[in-house]
Design brief:
Length: 426
Amino acid sequence: MRLPTKPLALPMPLWLQGVFELGQAAVISALLVVLPVAAVWLTGGFADRSPESAARLAGQGWLVMHGVPLVLQFPAGVAGDGAVAGLLHVVPLGLVLIPLLLAWRAGRRLARASYTDQLWQALLGALLTYAAIGAGVAYVSTTPDAAAPLAAGALIPPVAAGIGLVTGAYREAGAWSRLVGVDFAAWVGRTSQHSRWAGSYAWSVLRSGFLAVMVALSLSAALLAVAIGLNWAGIAAVYERLDGGIAGASVVTLFQLGLLPNLAVWTMSWSTGAGFALGTGSSLTPLGSAVGPLPALPILGALPAGTLEYGYAALAIPVLAGLLAGWWFFREGENHFDEWLVLHSPRRWLTATASTLALAVLIGIAAGLGGAVVALLSRASLGLGRFTDLGPDPLGVGLWLAAEVAVGALLGHAVGPLLEREPRRR
């Protein structure tokens, strides 16, 4: 129960507290865009822009940080005979974490200030505030060259904020029953034993698939870091050609840091064999790369070029991720499908084989679906010409990752008894 700090003071309404908390998060996240843009403008980087134009650019940057697409208008002669419109769309996963973490903090604070049956008031006020801010920024940031749809500005920013609010409130509450007023443990306890076993099995499979995706992403991020280190000279050369000064280089670096998680997903897609595209008609896979002219982004200097003699070795990454997922499932001890088969057949060789194969397939499907989702989120489009196709194909990544993780899960679960065998006592 909450204890009032000032008994004689009027309590702030929960919806107003939600407005204040997420409004504060919007201001802090906006500063991370406004300050770099202001630094570039003050150093003469936007010589042809007025302060109002630079402010609108910062507003568009805030929207892009939340994954809001921008409709770009290109003049005649840039891409064809007449003026054309294109859609710039990218979800910079590194930058999205900033409003998400700020909202996570706000969710914890709102949960501490609310009773179980009143938390919805604070969350609703917070999300409506963020939607209003997004719509307002989209409206005032409209220029003849770029504009964000008002509906997208109102609906997309609250997605990341909503995820942060709910997870932060759950972290503070410690249980969904305190958060939504429903005791899920008691509800599960009223179901049959078979239903509980099936639920535990399915939940363990989903967590194993999630673990496989996270391991594959972590190993891919390490591979990306090695590639950046080995090609640092080429990256530095691109920085020198840009010649944007300290402010310009800082903005480019900040943008690239925001895209690093996207590039880690692209590296994972590359390691599966599905590869990714950097423009229509291009292809980068472990067996070879075929790309055309690329934007002057320094991080692209780390891309592999030509035929890679040992590129196929990267295929071990998703297999290793599946092996760890299969081993984790064995340690979890929730293979109730195997127990069910044992009750219906005395042939242990058959039941063990069937349950292990089924488990590998299910973990592979879970990992494939997770990989397809992150691949979809990592895709981008610059809205012009061949650069409307940037990133991996979600379907291809899902299929390749599912197959390779399934192979690894089969091996991991099969060798689990050997790895977990207790030493003999003398």
